[in-house]
Prior knowledge:
Helix content is 47%, strand content 18%.
Amino acid sequence: MITQPLLSRRRFGASLAGAATLAGLARPVMAQRKYRLRYGTAFPADHPGVTRIQEAAQTIGTETSGQVDLQVFPNSQLGSEPDMFSQVRSGALDFMSTSGVNQTIVPVGGINAVAFAFPDYAHVWAAMDGDLGAYVRAQFDKAGLHVFEKPLDNGYRNITSGARQINRPDDLKGFKIRVPGNQLWVTMFKALGAAPAPIQFGELYASLQTHVVDGQENPLALIYSAKLYEVQKYTAVTEHIWDGHYIFANGKKWAAMPGDVRTSITKNLNAAAEKERADVLKMNDELVSTMTKAGVVFNKPDKQPFRDTLKTAGFYTEWKDRFGAEPWSILEKYSGPL
């Protein structure tokens, strides 16, 4: 039998040392954790609120050398907005975007939706990227939720009608209008003399078609994508509420991620939100043209009479009491006295 010569003790020790060195070099690579993260949203797949996040996910994957795999699920694939919000709170879902449902946990999360508070986008972004947004994010942080600095734009909400134009507050007297099941919306339209009716969005088209309600209010993108313009001849560009989507993460899970991972995700999600805002602005202009060609009649009412009516009805006083004096004073820093 042929045998290999034995290694000397010196050579054997050197070999062990070399192997240990190689193992030490390899260990960090082998131990590097892969983060497979999920992001849920109700936005349709072709909405900028999805496409820009998908672009960000690709950049994050590249920047982290594949360490982070962020998968985006549009069109409520992971459940309704309330369902996804609950999943983020429990830690079952990593990220999601929403607006109204978060107010059940942090009521001041809806302060951006105070009617006729922001006359234009310049005031919106000054507030939401400034002190008002910072105040709201701090309240969510106390509730165990991390909120990214830049909210997405869901657009200004506008009123549609099947029978007549809405030009002034008197045109809303007795007007049956579908609203989300949110007290801020309900009290606003009651103060304007309308008859608000909370109806599930999935039932809205049929409700308009069968005249269960006279009209509804939504951002232009949703009016178009849900084909509501097919059963609503008139659109009043009232811009009565600005609607945005905060991007949420579970606070504990977020804090447990390495700093470089959090830095990459934060940078790219914030950049995606700013790009999405520009997309929505451009899209709104295009949608007005598209729906006009389809027979929709647009008008742009003067906002001041609506604001005056709400003030006289005590709407702003009521919601100042509900939200609290501190956040209300921050809101008025951008909106002016309400």
